[in-house]
Amino acid sequence: MNDNILANSLFVKAEKPYEHVYFFNLASSHLFEAAEMLRQAHREWQEVQGFVATLETEHQEDFSRMSALADPAAGWPANRLKTLRNSFFHYLRLDRAAADVGKLPVIEGLRGIAQERGRVVIEAESVLTGIRSIFADDVLVNTLAADYEDGELEKLVGALPHYQGSLNRFGQAALGRYLRNLPDGVVEETIRPE
After folding, report:
1. What is the pLDDT of residues 5-61, one digit of tens each?
2. N or C: which end of the chain has fewer CB within 10 A?
3. Domain ranges, ordered by start, for the chain
4. Close Cβ partners of 34 (under 8 Å, ≥ 6 residues apart)
């Protein structure tokens, strides 16, 4: 939960376009990974099923909404989140078979940028960070979203907070319930000064 909350906070606070791209992909990846973990745990552990059944209806619904994202038959937005998660930590592949039939995703992404902008943007930053090739982020977005319909990327960005809210509410409720049920003296609460 901590990584998920951090990724979302940084996505919301991002100022530069490439920060938006990176933190959106990171937050989406954490979200889908959590959905897979929750679904598998619920399927395989009777204790998890029992625990979830003890939560308030609202939190059970949050759990169901989250775990449903990882159902292999799930449609949108689960299919898009899964693709983002599976491609985020990997560089775009140079697949020979795809290239041979004219369907290499990175080429499609480059063509998309050429059609949209007709130029390559390189942003100079401080001496320590060097040069950031902004076009590489644009190519990544165009490659990942090559088969998206008009406005679908914006729709996916808009859907993210609803699922993040479900995950956060469920996580807080589950953690609270678990901690409250531990024997006295096991949990030590410390409030750090700001």
Report:
1. 888 889 989 888 778 888 998 999 999 999 999 999 999 999 999 999 999 999 999
2. C
3. 2-180
4. 4, 66, 167
* DSSP helix/strand/coil, 194: coil
Structure tokens that stand for 151 in this block: 């406005």
Contacts 24+ apart (CB under 8 A), 89-92: 89/29, 92/139, 92/140, 92/143
Q: What is the per-residue pLDDT across 117-169, written as a single tens digit (0 to 9) for each?
A: 666 566 655 544 555 566 677 777 778 887 889 999 899 999 999 999 999 99
d(CA 119, CA 64): 45
Residue indicated by tokens 């906070």: 9
Strands 131-133 and 122-124: antiparallel
Residue 29: CB atoms within 10 Å: 21
